[in-house]
Specification:
The complex is a heterodimer of chains A (265) and B (767). Chain A is of the alpha/beta class. Chain A has one domain: Domain of unknown function DUF4159 (Rossmann fold), CATH 3.40.50.12140. Chain A has eight helices and eleven strands. In chain A, the strands form four sheets. In chain A, strands 6-8-11-10-9 form a five-stranded mixed beta sheet. Chain A is globular. A ten-stranded mixed beta sheet of chain B has the order 18-17-16-19-20-25-24-23-21-22, with helices on both faces. Chain B has an eight-stranded mixed beta sheet with strand order 26-28-31-30-29-32-33-27, with no helix packed on it. The longest helix of chain B is centred in the N-terminal third of the chain and has 22 residues, at 56-77. The radius of gyration of chain B is 38 Å and the shape is elongated. Chain B starts with a helix and ends with a helix. Classes of the chains: A alpha/beta (265), B alpha/beta (767).
């Protein structure tokens, strides 16, 4: 049987994912609390790894922010394992050539953020901005930056994201994306969004919403929100076997597409 | 005064001496007598040896004075004379050519126009000089400007001619007067000759036929108060929306140091204004103006300095150039070998540009043993465009006008594709831009490839550098050659542009490129963290096209960097200008041009077309037709024929009848198949060349006189003109002998020498 190029790539991708999962299984035995990169989100203490100085090479950037409800560091959810696994996959399947062993954590008012036009934010349901951060993010997005929101649920959390983004774009209108959107075809062809796994219980199928320049879907996408799901959780647990390989694959595919799309649009 | 003294001393005017041949007129007997007398004189001198009691100085002085007296007498006795050929009155013809061009309207003869001198002296029936000439010659009068015509009695001079074809006019008069006894030609002009080639040809003919020309120069060699836009160089074509940087050369007299605005207008709309300081008298100042060509079609751009009080010539304050503004979409193929931000921001910069289309072929995954490389295609026109990745045939690649190679290694291409890329520049005439990156230049193994031949920078082909060997931040500034280049102009003035470059954040490079090839230009240079000078943007012509190198991996920092305001458009402007320049002048398969682009009505113009096929190979067996549309819509089809001297070149001539803009559309077919078409525009309008440099050109007129054996006269002093013609020696003449022995100068010499001897003797007690 002859396999198409896409089929061959999918198989290669799945095999790579399995290998990474198996390779990291031993480490997984050490227990979550020790291994999850120094994240202790409930105590407010984060063991940050040093940032990678800019040299033109792609570096995953996670946005840090203040939690307006408590001292919990919601922004650090899945840090750093989630991005490590994701960057390894990205490096394996594409020519992006990202740093795989290091990543950056930057606040929105950090000038260094401007050197990384793609950034990721976890749990925007708890996100709030200082005036300096507001100015930083406004410049970042208007100059051409792209922000990925992930890991949040409930109308209340969505309301917070809308509220925060409305400080930059008062008339912002988030658009529910369909599988036809180019972002779902920039590398892998994701033809059915219903296949994207749901991480949370009782929140239905995940929703993918885009924010566009001038609220015009034909223009540049400024940000994408993975609402009612937690894609990075699948990245993080790729080596644990907690979630199925097929579900994890879909999460990685989504992430790869986001990066390729944001690098070219 | 000098002439009068000369004539008193030497009996005749200098003109007589200039035209006459000097001879000794004594008979043999007289010569023998003089020799005998000389012998007697010698004996007399011999007797001076007896003068005793005095020193040798007395002897020398006395002998000298006596010898001088004898010498003067001897000269007289040998009868010196001038032989002249004098025109026989009313037996000879004289052609008088009167300049009837616009420049004769210039008022620099004590406030009067040059033309008034011509009218008063030559054109009117009772004209002073015409009367003098008519007494001795049969006068034939011509007027000339762009053409030459006989000036019949009653005809007036209008001084509205739009050119001064002096050479043609001389030729016409010579031909008409051929076979007649011609004493010479008089040319009354300011010498503003605008057709030098014909002038030299006519001059050679006049010399060969020994026809002397007597130019009468009218006007001043330097205007007292005048401002002139001397030269403006604009491209013949420009893509709509392109920002042009144009050098305007201004000269002036009488306004040094004063400030005036230089206004650029497009079809009456002001597109740029800048204040300029007038240079010192007689010196040229070059002013760089920047403006954008926003409207498509043939556009007239006027560069003018407002007329100032007291200026002697007003029309030369402005120059008008025609630019064909092309309102079409030019396509560039951008192959990016790895997903990176440079592609996103370059694409974004050109997104709003309706005239430049960037097709991004983004390689996202490398080839594997079982799968070809994976590409993302953005900006394509059809679903099949670039479906196989980078074009495999010349026909496909050559549909693009520009090619950008991002961070992609040479081994990603076949040998044939590498050759095609070089041919894309050399033969097709496309623009190639190579960007920096870990897979670019030497780091990408490009050294020694055909593409490296085209590049303006030198790569070390034998030992390619490895990616990761080098990384540095670079502060970028315009290089010397780049300061005047439109691509690097970030602001309205040079100083503001330089300041803008200084404020830009540094970018980074992983390609250590320090030198360009001979003939290449460095437009941007930089300094890395170690103080090493680097080439940042270089360009060179390669064959019919151009190749550029920009070894920077993240110019997008000029957009994103924290120091750059959100509203700053430097990155967008830079890339728009750079890519527009990459595709500027890239030829189509059929190209047409006229030479020149502005002619006078009924003046023939040559149309030249270059015809190629899909592979941009010259085609010499095509059927090529020029369809010329006049301003009122009259269409004329002019077949064009292969010139033979160059493959693919076709020519035809056409003379526009109407005044205004003509459209010339050239179509080419071969075996019934269309090869393409091209449009250009031509302007038919009265020339304003007469108003530029409208000063009296004495040097040209003196040369005309000297080389033909005539004599140059200033308009203010033409009293000897008729006599000079009489003595030209041409036509029907009689020989006249003019004795010189009785000239007062010789008599005065005799008195001086004889008197001197007497005074000396008295003083020395020898009398």
């Amino acid at each position: 049987m002859r396999l198409s190029t896409t089929q061959r790539r999918s198989i290669a991708f799945i095999v790579t994912s399995i290998l990474i999962s198996l390779g990291l299984t031993v480490e997984a035995q050490r227990g979550f609390s020790q291994r999850r990169g120094g994240e202790d989100r409930f105590s407010g203490n984060i063991r940050l790894e040093g940032n990678q100085p800019y040299d033109g090479r792609f570096t995953f950037v996670r946005v840090s922010y203040q939690n307006f409800m408590s001292r919990r560091n919601e922004w650090s959810h899945d840090y750093p394992v989630g991005e490590r696994h994701f960057m390894k996959i990205l490096n394996e399947v594409s020519l992006v050539n990202p740093y795989t062993e290091t990543s950056n954590v930057l606040a929105l008012d950090n000038p260094e953020l401007m050197k990384y036009p793609i950034a990721y934010m976890a749990e925007p349901g708890y996100w709030m901005m200082t005036e300096a951060e507001l100015a930083g993010l406004t410049a970042y997005l208007k100059k051409g930056g792209f922000l990925i929101f992930d890991d949040f649920r409930s109308p209340w959390e969505w309301g917070n994201l809308e509220l925060q983004m409305a400080r930059i774009y008062p008339n912002a209108r988030w658009v529910d994306l369909t599988a036809e959107h180019p972002i779902f075809h920039s590398f892998y062809d994701i033809n059915n969004l219903d296949l994207i796994p749901q991480y949370f219980q009782n929140y239905g199928t995940p929703k993918f919403r885009g924010l566009f320049e001038d609220n015009d879907p034909s223009k540049r996408m400024i940000a994408i929100a993975n609402f009612d799901t937690d894609i990075s959780e699948f990245w993080e647990y790729a080596d644990t076997g907690i979630r199925s390989v097929s579900e994890t694959n879909e999460a990685f595919k989504l992430g790869v597409n986001y990066i390729i799309y944001a690098l070219t649009h | 005064m000098i002439d009068a003294i000369f004539q008193f001393l030497f009996k005749y005017q200098p003109l007589v001496y200039e035209q006459g041949d000097f001879v000794w007129g004594s008979s043999r007997w007289m010569s023998a007598s003089v020799l005998v007398a000389t012998g007697i004189a010698a004996y007399a001198l011999f007797t001076y040896r007896g003068v005793l009691g005095h020193g040798p100085r007395d002897r020398v002085v006395l002998i000298g004075l006596r010898l001088a007296v004898l010498a003067v007498l001897a000269v007289c006795l040998f009868r010196p004379m001038l032989i002249l050929k004098v025109a026989v009155p009313q037996q000879n013809f004289v052609g008088v050519l009167l300049d009837d061009s616009r420049s004769m309207q210039v008022s620099d003869l004590e406030g009067l126009p040059r033309g008034s001198y011509v009218r008063d002296n030559f054109a009117a029936a009772d004209g002073l000089l015409l009367t003098q000439l008519s007494e001795k010659f049969v006068v034939r009068t011509y007027r000339f400007s762009s053409t030459a015509q006989r000036l019949e009695p009653g005809d007036g001079l209008s001084f509205t001619g739009t050119g001064t074809r002096l050479g043609d006019a001389l030729g016409r008069a010579r031909d008409e007067l051929a076979g007649l006894p011609l004493s010479g030609l008089i040319v009354v002009t300011d010498g503003a000759d605008t057709s030098e080639a014909a002038f030299d040809v006519s001059l050679a003919s006049l010399k060969a036929e020994s026809i002397p020309v007597f130019p009468v120069g009218v006007g001043e060699e330097r205007l007292v108060r005048d401002i002139q836009v001397s030269r403006v160089e604009t491209p013949r074509t420009a893509l709509k929306g392109t920002s042009l940087v144009v050098d305007v050369v201004v000269t002036q007299t009488g306004f040094a140091g004063e400030k005036f605005p230089l206004v650029v207008e497009s079809e009456g709309r002001v597109v740029d204004t800048q204040d300029i300081t007038m240079p010192p008298d007689g010196e040229a100042a070059t002013i760089r103006v920047r403006f954008k060509v926003d409207d498509g079609g043939p556009r007239r751009f006027k560069f003018r300095i407002p007329e100032q009080p007291g200026e002697q010539v007003l029309p030369n304050n402005a120059r008008e150039n025609l630019i064909d503004v092309l309102d079409r979409r030019v396509k560039l193929l951008y192959l990016e070998g790895e997903p990176r931000f440079e592609a996103k921001f370059i694409k974004q910069a050109l997104e709003q540009d309706p005239n430049v289309q960037v097709v991004l072929l983004q390689r996202t995954a490398a080839a594997t043993p079982s799968a070809p490389p994976k590409f993302l295609r953005l900006g394509i026109d059809t679903p099949d465009e670039l479906i196989e990745g980078f074009p495999l045939t010349e026909e496909e690649l050559f549909t693009y006008s520009g090619l950008i190679l991002g961070s992609v290694e040479a081994s990603a291409f076949t040998a044939e594709q590498l050759r095609m890329i070089a041919e894309f520049v050399g033969r097709r005439g496309g623009g190639l831009l190579t960007l920096g990156g870990r897979r670019s230049f030497a780091e990408g193994g490009w050294g020694g490839t055909p593409v490296a031949e085209a590049l303006p920078v030198t790569l070390d082909g034998s030992a390619n550098a490895k990616a990761g060997d080098y990384f540095s931040e670079i502060s970028v500034l315009p290089a010397r050659a780049g300061q005047a280049h439109p691509v690097v102009q970030l602001a309205a003035t040079d100083a503001a542009s330089l300041e803008a470059w200084r404020k830009l954040p540094p970018v980074t490079s992983v390609n250590l490129i320090q030198s360009v090839k001979p003939g290449a230009s460095t437009l941007l240079s930089g300094e890395d963290a170690n103080g090493v000078d680097l080439v940042v943007l270089a360009a060179q012509r390669y064959g019919r096209g151009k190749a550029l190198a920009f070894p920077v991996q993240d110019s997008w920092l000029w957009r994103m960097h924290a120091s750059m305001p959100v509203t700053d458009s430097t990155h967008h402007d830079f890339w728009q200008r750079l890519l527009r320049w990459v595709v500027d002048g890239v030829p189509g398969r059929v190209e047409v041009a006229t030479a020149p682009d502005r002619v006078e009505p009924r003046e023939p113009v040559t149309m030249t077309a270059l015809v190629t096929d899909k592979k941009y190979q010259d085609v010499s067996d095509a059927r090529v037709t020029a369809i010329v549309r006049s301003p009122t819509g009259v269409v004329t089809e002019v077949p064009m024929s292969w010139t033979v001297r160059r493959d693919g070149e076709y020519q035809a001539t056409f003379a526009p009848e109407e005044e205004g803009a003509y459209q010339v559309r050239v179509t080419a077919t071969r075996d019934g198949e269309s090869l393409g078409s091209s449009i250009t525009h031509l302007r038919a309008a009265p020339s304003d060349r007469e108003y530029f440099d409208p000063v009296l050109r004495t040097s040209l007129l003196r040369r005309l006189a000297d080389e033909t054996g005539g004599k140059y006269f200033q308009a203010a002093d033409t009293s000897k003109l008729a006599e000079a013609l009489s003595l030209s020696g041409r036509g029907v003449t009689v020989v006249e002998e003019k004795d010189l022995w009785d000239m007062p100068a010789l008599f005065l010499l005799l008195i001086v020498f004889a008197g001197g001897e007497w005074v000396y003797r008295r003083a020395r007690g020898l009398a």
